[in-house]
Amino acid sequence: MREIVTVQVGGFANFIGSHFWNFQDELLGLASDPNNDPVFRNQCLNMDVLYRTGETQQGVLTYTPRLLSVGFQGSLGSMSSRGLLYNESSPGPSDVVTWSGSVSTHASAPRKKNLFLQRLYEEEQESFSMINGTSSGKSDSQREIQDKDIVEFLDNHVEFWTDFSKVHYHPQSLYELGGLWMDPQEFDNYGIGKDAFSEGFRGEEICERLRFFVEESDHIQGFQFVVDDSGGFSAVAADLLENIADEYANTPVLLFAVRSPSSQMNLRSRKQTIFRELHDTVSFSRLASFGKLIVPVGLPFLNESKASTLLCIENEKPYHCSAVYAAALHSATLPYRMEPVGPTADSFDVFGAVDINGFVQMLAGQARQNTVAILDAAMPAPALNGKQHEQSLLGNLQPLTPEVSEDVEDLQAVESMIIHGALRSDGQRASISEVKETVNAIYGHAITRPMFCHLSVARCPLPIPLPYPSMFGNLVGQYGELLNSPFVGSSPRGSLEVHSIPMAVRLRSSSAILPFLENRLGNLRRYGLQRGALGAELLRNWGFADDELYDMGEMLSKMVSTMKPHSEISSDSD
Amino acid sequence: MSLRVLNPNAEVLNKSAALHMNINAAKGLQDVLKTNLGPKGTIKMLVGGAGDIKLTKDGNTLLKEMQIQNPTAIMIARTAVAQDDISGDGTTSTVIFIGELMKQSERCIDEGMHPRVLVDGFEIAKRATLQFLEKFKTPVVMGDEPDKEILKMVARTTLRTKLYESLADQLTDIVVNAVLCIRKPEEAIDLFMVELMHMRHKFDVDTRLVEGLVLDHGSRHPDMKRRAENCYILTCNVSLEYEKSEVNAGFFYSNAEQREAMVAAERRQVDEKVRRIIELKNKVCSGNDNNFVVINQKGIDPPSLDLLARAGIIALRRAKRRNMERLVLACGGEAVNSVDDLTPGCLGWAGLVYEHVLGEEKYTFVENVKNPHSCTILIKGPNDHTIAQIKDAVRDGLRAVKNTIEDEAVVLGAGAFEVAARQYLVNEVKKTVEGRAQLGVEAFADALLVVPKTLAENAGLDTQDVIIALKGEHDRGNIVGLNQHSGDPIDPLMEGIFDNYSVKRQIINSGPVIASQLLLVDEVIRAGRNMRKPT
């Protein structure tokens, strides 16, 4: 077994993480329930890759994500930073044992648990009393809080990422940057965050917590790192990554740089635009220099993008947007969680397991050494067979990475495609071999073909947990099948109507990323490097010396030139 | 106003309003922190929205926990936090001193004095006070053997403001011994060489000093000994886990056997390193019943652990980077970066190594070392907030001892210095100053009294009585401080109440600077980026 440590840094990253862990929790729950669809019971996913087994001081066994999450102080809402599992008995005011003098208590108003969290709490109490043999005998119909209300409530009232999280976290997992209360609007650029990591004991404490999870892993396969790179957190993450690169030198890091649509709007003045663009450039190049493979995720207008044609998303709600990205992340990370089978044997449930290192080598380690990958997703994935649909799988795979050019012919492209829970056109689950054949056939007919495509397939679809937002369009059926005629009624469909969906995602290393890279290089040159550039002063304030900026430019232009089709000819054009 | 022409949205506060805004902010902050001061102060229990508890009596922690919005208050808070960074203590004093300076100034300004004149007076008074401090301080000779008693008195003074008496006294010995343990002649003291380890276990009074090291992890193999005596300690930074080579191995084999062969070959390299360690163990441990402990900064995977366990070696993986340094200082030997450097000479020694398990948490004690230069303060407590508070207090105590050794001086505490400095300013300095700057000196002098005043107030005493009594004694030439129990003057020297010289100096230095800056503000303009949010 090869462990993965997940790191989430920043507000939106934690939103995505919350959905991500809800999926895992749902899968765990479905797997242990014997009445369920067999496809969930035989997932052939090894949850131990992401989860750790532990024990509280009272000797209760626990199973919690191997996760380190970093956020603002106060960003945890009603959740205690120590989680609930390892809690000691609740302390009273008499508990001040270190001081014999007077005590003054300053209590901020307790945050009320919302409907969803109340329900979780009740259920837990119930199962606890069931064990003790005093079942209160409340049936579903008697339950005070109805599913419907919860879904509706969450749709309108999510404020913190903990509001819709149903997972128990380990006390070491949730780290708040003490003293950093700022609201995201003020923490919106690289410069503001540049000291946030090193201040006080913060950096040390974060690294300590990371070490806790790494030490107990027998053989760590890599870090799965999600960072909200829209603001100061990218500086925090860059410092943390530098530490990781230092301490765990040979452990690969798969980096997802995510941002919410709302962080990319509201640019009024030219000054703000320059600010933003320089931030994007700086944060990208800093992060890219530490990750073995970086996947930028986050479209500025998610709801209008082609990736969400079957979904109804509200851009302003991080709760919504993060749900899409979390689903894609879940699918993209499946290959390194699959139960490994012998090199010759074939499993009926999964195919194409590969570890993070293999993943990174495959996408970033080939001839071009391109470390930036594009994430495409088809959510939900279309049905497989049937002649008229043959192109639709590739057609439905739309990028979640911004600033990507369409229809590029890149003969050296490398792809990793992951399809899970795919359905046939008659609504039945397709077998592994059917999926393989179909994908082969699609690429056989396709006009542009990548140099290399790795396919991973799992039969288990993406389960939709209760706190998932209602954002499926009215063409999506109960099992994620695409209907020919829409449901009557206009309201978006949520977890009560849709139980699971098939997903297809693709990570590709292709020259389609060129505009993304060129924009960043261009901005750096225009605002930072040129003589008398507008942002030179700003960059200096952010702590970058001229030669650092120059190196940064060098790195970006190298990234660009490796991707240029004619790079061999004009390699030293600089 | 011209700014209005440029930016009609800008909000401008004129001279007196600006001044009063600053003064009020300073007073507000003073009010919040005032009750913290001294051994009779109030401890603050902060309960967060989710029920998380934080206990603090430390101004620094409190300032960090408050969401300060007022720009003036932020400025003061930053100064105070910087005070803590530099000298480790005195945050509360800085804040209340600045607040008091502003309060005194307000009185003068209301009477028509110009802030500029006041500031000049502050500057004169500050310089005079610093000179006075040089004369007033009690020099301490730090030879090869520092005077332990005086260090204990300083540490006790600090700790008693943070913890109840008997616990403070217990910790006093611990922090003093800890600092003396890591102290090396002719070298700056690196407090990082004192490890602070905590266990949520038992009670606060079980906190103790471990001469040696406590690591927060244990061996990861069921067959390794949980307790061993007479141990050689190998401190190393060598990866003992099988790592995939950087090049994608996928292209180098064409069938399953070749792949197996490659994996086996790579595995052999790791095994070889393990074998070298076992060889060394056999070399030093043959013929005696000594034990061998490997503490590695890198990982050790299960097959390697297995080999080591079979050879009777205890192995810990992924040790903290800092512990590498500490281990060498505590046990001797040197840290090894490659198995090629292995010699018996690089081994350290510990009389006892044992493991302690609390739920899923494991601790490894490396004790009974010879001549340690690194040690661990093991903090115990029933819950997290108690532990956190003791930890803060211990940090302050350590800093106080370190400061004393580096300052080679201490200052009489319990408000004695402040009263003495005030009398000196009023009785001698003021006369030498010409003109209205005299009032500035006087304001500064009165502001100094805020420390004994607040101490008295927190102890529930009558401030005026106390101040009059103290002033009287000082005028008679007796240097006295405040007895917090009775309100009577006492001799701090007899009671062993000493403060850090560097802390006091820093307060005297930074307080007037900020106060002067705030007093000289004559316009507050709210414009620019923050305009987005109406306040």
From TrEMBL, chain A:
Q: Which family does it belong to?
A: Belongs to the misato family.
Q: Name one GO cellular component term.
A: cytoskeleton
Which named protein is this? Answer: DML1/Misato tubulin domain-containing protein
The record places domain Misato Segment II tubulin-like at: 2-121
UniProt entry keywords in alphabetical sequence: Cytoplasm, Cytoskeleton, Mitochondrion
Pfam families associated with the record: Misat_Tub_SegII (PF10644), Tubulin_3 (PF14881)
Supply the InterPro entries for this chain.
Beta-tubulin_BS, DML1/Misato, DML1/Misato_tubulin, Misato_II_tubulin-like, Tubulin/FtsZ_GTPase_sf
Localization per Swiss-Prot or TrEMBL: Cytoplasm, Cytoskeleton; Mitochondrion
- Annotated GO biological process: mitochondrion organization
Broad class of the protein's primary localization: cytoplasm
From TrEMBL, chain B:
* Keywords on record: ATP-binding, Chaperone, Cytoplasm, Nucleotide-binding
- The principal localisation class reads cytoplasm
Name any one GO molecular function.
ATP hydrolysis activity
Superkingdom of this protein's organism: Eukaryota
Q: Which GO terms describe its cellular component?
A: cytoplasm
Stored InterPro entries: Chap_CCT_zeta (IPR012722), Chaperone_TCP-1 (IPR017998), Chaperonin_TCP-1_CS (IPR002194), Cpn60/GroEL/TCP-1 (IPR002423), GroEL-like_apical_dom_sf (IPR027409), GROEL-like_equatorial_sf (IPR027413), TCP-1-like_intermed_sf (IPR027410), TCP-1_chaperonin (IPR053374)
What Pfam families does the annotation carry? Cpn60_TCP1
Subcellular localization: Cytoplasm
Checking PANTHER family in the record gives: CHAPERONIN
Recorded family membership: Belongs to the TCP-1 chaperonin family.
This chain's function reads:
Molecular chaperone; assists the folding of proteins upon ATP hydrolysis. Known to play a role, in vitro, in the folding of actin and tubulin.
Question: What is the protein named?
Answer: T-complex protein 1 subunit zeta
Instruction: Print the organism lineage.
Output: Eukaryota, Viridiplantae, Streptophyta, Embryophyta, Tracheophyta
